[in-house]
Amino acid sequence: MLRDDAAMSSVRPGGRGGEGASSTGNDEIVRLALSIVQEAKAVRHNRAEIQLLVQFVQQIADLMQQPQSSELSRDPDTRAMVSSLKEYLLEASRIVSHNEQHRKNKKMAQAFLCGVDGGYYWQQTDYILKVAYRVEYYVQVLPVITMRQMFA
What we know:
Low-confidence stretches: 1-22
Order of helices and strands: HHHHHH
Distance between the termini: 38 Å
Radius of gyration: 17 Å
Helix content: 55-70%
Strand content: under 5%
Number of helices: 6
């Protein structure tokens, strides 16, 4: 927990040390990823799948905090990729939030929270894993793209 709090406090809007607006996109992604990790600590539904998703999200936060990643959101060639990553992180956030709602409202009828039949698409294991593996794709690709940019 201390690690997450320290990481979040070190990321400020406007970038790190003189980078200005260049890493704002990266900072947004890091803040979003760390908030997902923090919120997921209390999740009880689909625990294994959520933890896999959170593991990949934490790796994204770690990668995006690396100095080499500062160019990703600024470079026109990678800006779309960073935007797509952010969309997947937003989806991961919605999944975690939904599962957290279940924990907080366990006495409330499932049908009220999740529709008529009590089932909810975000709660389904296969959908959680689908989003997790999409995030994992970026865990694998970001270091390669960052290295390519360094040597270009």
